[in-house]
Specification:
single chain; 434 Repressor (Amino-terminal Domain); elongated
Length: 271
């Protein structure tokens, strides 16, 4: 699948199995364990399936598990909502055909563009599943060069030397970026396969993080940003999925009400 993994479902299951604490899963052992996480047979028994069937599933020799099997495995592995959605997408071949029939469309709806133009005091941007920046408010690129129309957020993070200055907590930002990209990958293979393969070749750090198979979609939080002439800002953010087959997402950043960060953003917007 993405990153040219022909057994994405099995690879993802193995990665989660190896990160599952046996004791937390209810496995009692009195000997030293050499294997990381749960063993295949342990996960199979806890999920109520035969060890031989689970082995075939993880090895890619069976690619059509039932919803009940997926639910049982997800429960034992304690997958969160984003990881479950990703697992479901990996196990649904029909998604490939639907994605292929809906090529990427990068034109942002006129109404959204109009809103961005009116939000003069907010950094906000629209991206596609590849994280290409398609449209922004006027303030966004003044605060972060990555938030410039035509830029790609993932490429900036891993390939642009300015990224480690812009993001004081670069390690956290990079991990979030990769895990979020993987959350999009199952449903947008046509757009993302070649992009991810190229990034794996160009960045050893990206390849290592991608191969950890972490996946989640962070829809709100706080991001620390260094803005030249302003200093460090703690920006709250919210994300909004825009309806439509394009898979566009709107990111809106702001300072907490009454905070010094909010005042600095306002001052920057009025300069």
């Amino acid at each position: 699948m993405t990153g040219h993994d022909d057994n994405a479902l099995g690879t993802f299951l193995r990665s989660r199995r190896e990160k599952t604490d046996p004791a937390r899963a209810g496995v009692i052992t009195h000997t030293r364990r050499r294997a990381k996480g749960l063993r295949r047979e342990e996960l199979a028994l806890l999920a109520g399936v035969s060890p031989s069937y689970y082995t075939r599933l993880e090895q890619g020799r069976d690619r059509n598990p039932s919803r009940e099997v997926l639910q049982a495995l997800a429960a034992v592995l304690e997958l969160d909502d984003t990881e479950r959605a990703y697992l479901w997408a990996l196990a649904a071949p029909a998604l490939d055909a639907a994605d292929a029939a809906s090529p990427a469309v990068d034109a942002v709806r006129p109404g959204v563009v109009h809103l961005l133009r009116r939000w003069s005091d907010l950094p906000a941007l629209v991206v596609n599943p590849r994280r290409d920046v398609l449209a922004t408010t006027a303030l966004a690129p003044r605060m972060n060069p990555a938030w410039t129309t035509g830029q790609n957020l993932i490429e900036f993070t891993f390939l642009d030397p300015r990224a480690r200055q812009v993001y004081p907590q670069w390690q956290d930002i990079s991990l979030q970026a990769v895990a979020g990209l993987r959350a999009s990958a199952a449903a947008h293979r046509v757009q993302l396969d070649d992009f991810i393969a190229t990034l794996r070749d160009r960045s050893d750090v990206f390849r290592s993080q991608w191969d950890s198979h972490d996946v989640y979609g962070r829809v709100h939080g706080i991001k620390l940003l260094h803005v030249p002439g302003v200093g460090e800002l703690h920006l709250a953010y919210e994300t909004f999925t825009l309806p439509g087959p394009e898979g566009h997402t709107l990111y809106v950043y702001f300072g907490q009400p009454g905070s010094e960060d909010e005042q600095k953003i306002h001052q920057l917007a009025t300069q």
